[in-house]
Amino acid sequence: xxxxxKNPVEVPSGVELKIDGNVVSAKxxxxxxxxxxxxxxxxTLDEGKVTVTPANDSKRARSMWGTARSRVQNLVxxxxxxxxxxxxxxxxxxxxxxxxxxxxxxxxxxxxxxxPIPEGITIKCDKPTAVAVSGIDKxxxxxxxxxxxxxxxxxxxxxxxxxxxxxxxxxxEGKKK
Length: 177
Description:
Layout: E1 9-10, E2 16-20, E3 23-27, E4 32-36, E5 41-46, E6 49-54, H1 59-80, E7 83-90, E8 95-99, E9 102-106, E10 113-116, E11 121-124, E12 130-135, H2 138-150, E13 161-164
Antiparallel strand pairs: 1-6, 2-3, 3-4, 5-6, 7-12, 7-13, 8-9, 9-10, 11-12
């Protein structure tokens, strides 16, 4: 039995949820998202709660049970609150700035890294060393943050590079004389 899947998803006020077959659509103050579940799960809405159950007793149905429930939860949270990933930039001369629809990253290369901001994503740079990626789609926000981090991942000796704000870098000891 899925520990995640058996819990119902609470639909907060201000979020309109529509279930059409296996397609779940959520509309809230931040926007609209939809998700198409597989035929292995049944999704029902009653009294402001969404319940996901496996359609049969197959291994795939049990696997998709918790996944479908998490996807529905992410839809509801995304359209009501949104998601944010915070990145920190460490290093001498390393900085970021938003210029129009482009994120300009100076990461110690001979050139600036220009990252076009995708549709549905907002990027803010309050400080030159802090980048906040936000949006309503959890997968898209995480993917954009991972791509930005991938331009210069943190290195273990001095900790220079782009890292998540809550990430802990395991430091290595340098070579000895």
